[in-house]
Amino acid sequence: MLYYKNPYFNYVRRRPLALVGPLAVLIMIYLFFFSSSGKKDTAKYSYNKKSSAWFGKNKDSVILRNLPKNHISHYDLNKLTISPDALTKKEEVLILSPMSKFLPEYWENLNKLTYDHSLISLGFIFPRTQEGDQALKELEDSLKRSKAQNKLNFKKITLLRQDSNSLKSQAEKDRHAFKVQKERRSMMALARNSLVFTTISPTTSWVLWLDADIVETPPTLIQDLTAHNKPVLSANVYQRYFDPETNQKSIRPYDFNNWVESEEGLKIASGLADDEIIVEGYAEMATYRPLMAHFYDANGDVNSEMALDGVGGGAVMVKADVHRDGAMFPSFPFYHLIETEGFAKMAKRLGYEVFGLPNYLVYHHNE
Ligand SMILES: Nc1nc2c(ncn2[C@@H]2O[C@H](COP(=O)(O)OP(=O)(O)O)[C@@H](O)[C@H]2O)c(=O)[nH]1
Ligand SMILES: [Mg+2]
Predict the structure, then answer these.
(1) What is the pLDDT of residues 16-63, one digit of tens each?
(2) CA–CA gap between residue 322 and residue 152 (Å, rounded)
(3) Residue 4: which pLDDT band, with cuts at 50, 70 and 90?
(4) Nearest ligand to the C-alpha of residue 257?
(5) Are strands 214-216 and 92-98 parallel, antiparallel or unpaired?
(6) Which of 3, 135, 308, 313 could lock onto 340 through a cystine, CB 3.0 to 4.6 A?
(7) Could you tell me the maximum CA-CA distance found in the chain, to the nearest angstrom?
(8) What percent of the chain has pLDDT over 90?
(9) Cα(150)–Cα(148) distance, rounded to whole angstroms?
(10) Residues 290-315: pLDDT tens digits?
(11) 196 lines ligand 1 (CB under 6 A)
């Protein structure tokens, strides 16, 4: 027959193993081109320059690689407890921090929290700016160090790079200027929403919003706040400073976003156009709202509670169900409020009560 005369056919018939080499080369070429281009398509941003990070090759992957195919998970949310005995009941806490700057004091304070670290997951979101690059690098370094010392025992740590915009200048005076508040706070709202919606898990009982510039809290922060069993509970954010008048170290109120609505506030709101907002703590818009920051009593009961209508993001404990029900940080005027203040309003509209602890202090970094 004709094909017996084909010298290649005869060669292969006599030595079939000779096919192995060329086939292996073909398979390698296929894997090289198709598997790597597939990965490139799914990654929104390339972090190639950081390929030496300790996350290894999976760091940009959204999907966990070690789950079997068609993995099915069952979670009965009725069995998830969110109780005042959080630690005894081994309830999981998700600590969320938007981070434009890494402060070692924040990280040290976080590590000193006495709640069981294996029940704590951490989530961070970094702006897509040079400042964000720097903060990410510094946090990664700290994580590496803690890991090397065998001191990193959190359940899970998620680092996110923001895909929405941020303001370029974050200097105190720039970011607190009244006219940039709407833009800045609405960008912060998008960052907070990305953070909570990508990290909350079916086993999360509590979400603790802890700004990355809160440098000092009681080590029992989680136990203390969960013990109140409130849907939303804000600590009072103060700041340590040196008082030149008395020549002594002192403390002063910092966060004015924890407030109770006032007649005047409602009156201002009723006169605003749909897309206008009220931001608390600015003389341009005097609301005369009672501010929790001013209710601190050094001799008062640290556990005394006050009902609030607006909260800040410094240190706020939220029952995960409040977020699961849909409470988020409006990046648009919601009852003329945005971001954390809009979140408090939304939680209330969902039927949850919002509280603060005027005598329970946490401290903001002093720039
Ligand atoms: N992801 C992200 N985090 C930010 C951005 N700007 C500020 N942050 C973080 O968000 C938190 C609150 O912001 P901050 O500027 O401190 O607000 P202030 O305390 O009200 O002045 C802090 O933890 C910041 O590190 C941003 O553009 N993107
Ligand atoms: Mg701050």
Answers:
(1) 777 788 888 888 877 766 654 433 333 333 344 444 444 445 454 555
(2) 29
(3) low
(4) 1
(5) unpaired
(6) 313
(7) 110
(8) 73
(9) 5
(10) 999 999 999 999 999 999 999 999 99
(11) no
Amino acid 309: pLDDT: 98
d(C-alpha 10, C-alpha 304), whole Å: 92
Ligand closest in space to the Cα of 159: 1
Return the best residue to mutate from 163, 211, 237, 311 for the ligand 1 pocket (most ligand atoms within 8 A of CB).
211
Pocket of ligand 1 contains residue 187 by CB under 6 Å: yes
Cα of 107 vs centre of ligand 2, distance in Å, is 15
Ligand 1 neighbourhood includes 213 CB (under 6 angstroms): yes
Q: Would you say the CB of residue 126 lies under 6 angstroms from ligand 1?
A: yes
Q: How far is ligand 2, taken at its centre, from the CA of residue 54, in Å? A: 29
Which ligand 1 atom lies nearest to the CA of residue 254? 19
pLDDT band, residue 175 (cuts 50/70/90): confident
Q: Residue 140's beta-bridge partner residues?
A: none
| Contact in structure between 121 and 148 (CB atoms under 8 Å) | no
Query: Which structural domains are found in the chain, ordered by start?
Result: 86-364 (3.90.550.10)
Q: What is the C-alpha separation between 295 and 13, in angstroms, rounded?
A: 92
